[in-house]
Specification:
The chain is mainly beta and about 240 residues long. It has one domain. The chain has 1 helix and 15 strands; from the N terminus they run αβββββββββββββββ. The strands form 2 sheets. It has an 8-stranded parallel β-sheet, with helices on one face. The longest helix has 12 residues.
Length: about 240
């Protein structure tokens, strides 16, 4: 299982850093009664990658959606791997840049399980207008072994006029014979000459018959000549 996870994750993350146009790749692998479904959609200057693998009756579903407009770039990657369990990975990236304003949205979702349930959702939204620059990065990982792991990461960043906004969201849920939930929400907004930065990290790990939950929210706002920064981190480990 670990070797399979490393191989398929490497395939998903080893591509070139930028796409010159719409680029979509979907890979689906199923063996020994497993069922795998992969769907990738790319629009504009975007790259979308979806990889799903299942074996021994497992079900793996990977959905990746990347959309970019107005000189923005979006990159979305979804990986789902299931061995006798259910793994669902959803990744969305949306970027909009206009009149020289740059917008970059990066979303990565990984779900892997052995005999359990793993659900990972990742979303990144960046919006840069005029000379504004917005960068959003969202990473979500759910790993389970005969348990249930739910991971949800969302990053939203908006830079308008000459403002700059950066947001980073990272969620990890890992369990063995238990349950782990991790939800991270990050929102940055900048206007005029302002700058805004926000960073959120949530880690949830649980052992047999234990439950762990991490919920993180980081919001930052800046306007005119202001500067705003926020950071939040939660780590929960129940062994």
């Amino acid at each position: 299982m670990k070797r399979m996870l490393k191989l398929m994750t490497g395939l998903a993350l080893g591509a070139a850093p930028l796409a010159l146009g719409g680029e979509a790749t979907a890979v689906s692998i199923a063996t020994n009664g497993g069922r795998a479904t992969a769907t990738a959609t790319a629009a504009g200057n975007a790259r979308s990658t979806a990889i799903a693998g299942a074996t021994r009756g497992g079900v793996a579903i990977a959905n990746s959606d990347a959309r970019a407009r107005g000189w923005g770039f979006a990159d979305s990657r979804a990986v789902a791997i299931a061995d006798r369990g259910l793994a669902v990975s959803n990744s969305t990236a949306d970027a909009f840049g206009l009149f020289g304003g740059s917008a970059y949205a990066d979303s990565e979702s990984i779900a892997a399980t052995i005999g359990g349930v793993a659900v990972s959702n990742s979303g990144a939204l960046a919006d840069g207008v005029f000379r504004g620059r917005a960068t959003s990065r969202s990473y979500s990982t759910a790993l389970s072994e005969y348990g249930t792991a739910l991971s949800d990461s969302q990053a939203v960043s908006r830079g308008r006029f000459a403002g700059q906004a950066t947001s980073v969201s990272d969620a990890l849920a890992d369990t063995r014979f238990g349950r782990a939930d991790s939800r991270v929400r990050v929102d940055s907004d900048a206007g005029y000459h302002a700058q805004a930065y926000s960073d959120g990290v949530g880690i949830s790990i649980s052992g047999p018959l234990r439950s762990s939950h991490a919920d993180v929210t980081a919001i930052s706002r800046a306007d005119r000549f202001g500067r705003s920064q926020s950071a939040a981190s939660v780590i929960r480990i129940h062994r």
